[in-house]
Amino acid sequence: MKVLVIGSGGREHTIAWRLAQSNLVSEVICVPGNGGTATESKCKNIDPKENADLQFLSFNDVAVTVAKKEKVDFAVIGPEDPLAEGIADALWNAGIPTVGPKAQGAALEASKDLSKVFMKKYGVACAASETFTEKEAALAYVREKGAPIVVKADGLAAGKGVVVAKSLEEAEKAVKDLMDGNAVGEAGKKLVIEEYLQGVEISVLAAVSVTPETAANGKACIKAFLPARDHKRLMEGAQGPNTGGMGAVCPLEDVTAETMAQFEKNILQPTLKGLVAEKMDYRGFIFFGLMITKDGPKALEYNVRLGDPETQAVLPMMDFDFAELCQAIMNGTLDSFEMKWKSGFQVAPVAVSGGYPLKYAKGKVITIAEPVISHAGAKIFIAGAVKDRRTEGQPLVTSGGRVLACSAHGETFREAWGKAYEAMCGVQFEGMFYRRDIGLPGAAESN
């Protein structure tokens, strides 16, 4: 089989790598891909910006055109933006089976307000909230409720639309910055303001197969993966500004079987009930952002795709064929698909460009000492790096804030942690920065 993977980050490199490991897959076409997928076994990049036949097409048309030309058997969509724009609808309409929800389901991430309405309607355990389109009303609400409080932009904001305000002044500033369009543009014109939950955050990714057919025959299904944790703060000890993620670990020693059972009962199954009741065609993944409180887990948000960098820690733990899972999602047999997991742990710290998440330089040459990586038994997943075709030898150079992750497995957490950081010592580029406490006690964000 040939598979199309849409996206250019570390998540997409991981997805392409995992698909390429399948004996069922002959080639993975990455659009646009990155410097990691450019050299990954069985993988080929197609960058629309470098292709005269594609560069003036909409991204949906690019995906359909490439899928047909390359005669792919199915597609996997990585990021949320194209899903919200209906890329899955376009591919299915063109006869290309696709892993990724259609636009109706993708709206669960594209609108925080819609997702909260959905959660409340179907009894999903979540934080209490109100939605506002007028700045003065929002300011009056935060003054009434006081701090701490959580202020969220309704629309997609690339992880920059959530402010956990510890003071009233901080909450008021967040409301003004978001609603005046200074922080995230149009995404902040509507706000969801939530109660502040005490606890520690975790991520649970899940496979989803819901169609009118599976709803009718009782085979609509959501299956959760192992729990993981993303470390969002820039500095060690969960300090500094929020980022897109400084590293991840999977599974979690502090998440009990009882907690996962509560998640299944109070969040996972009510979500499935809602997807079925709303008659959604949702074949893909859901990423549940959760807060583990004294009253059990509560949903913070839905993401309608695999998480990043959680994917770099979760997918290597799979002891099954990822391509077969994708097929089960698409053809409605997920309910009978058996997911087996490796024992032990996976740790994946992320290396970022100097200055991230604010202003940072690009084009810095990356050197990777392969013997060091090999000795550690780690895998490098490229995120913000590309091949510099202007330079002899086409060296790998930085092109984004989050540059790469070093992901390693161990039978114990300490073994996995040691291997991951041993591998990180084999990577160098000017301005490189990474946290040295991913997965350690005190590293997790908590309220």
Please describe what this structure looks like.
The chain has 14 helices and 23 strands. It has helices at residues 10-20, 59-70, 80-84, 87-93, 103-110, 112-121, 135-145, 168-179, 212-217, 257-277, 310-314, 322-331, 370-376, 413-424; strands at 2-7, 27-32, 43-45, 74-77, 98-99, 129-132, 149-153, 162-165, 191-195, 200-210, 221-230, 233-235, 239-242, 247-250, 282-293, 296-303, 345-352, 367-368, 378-382, 385-387, 396-398, 402-410, 427-428. Helix 5 (103-110) crosses helix 6 (112-121) and helix 13 packs antiparallel against helix 14 (413-424). The model has no long low-confidence stretch (mean pLDDT 95).
Task: Offer a quick outline of the entry.
This protein has about 450 residues and is of the alpha+beta class. Helix content is about 30%, strand content about 30%.
Superfamily (CATH H level) name of the largest domain: ATP-grasp fold, B domain
E-strand count = 23
Radius of gyration: 21 Å
Give the strand content. Answer: 25-35%
As laid out across the biggest beta sheet, the strand order is 16-15-10-11-14-17-22-19
Give the class-level CATH name of the largest domain: Alpha Beta
Overall domain count:
4
Sheet having the most strands: 8 strands, antiparallel
How widely separated are the two ends? 46 Å
Give start-end ranges of low-pLDDT stretches: none
Shape: globular
Structural class by secondary-structure content: alpha+beta
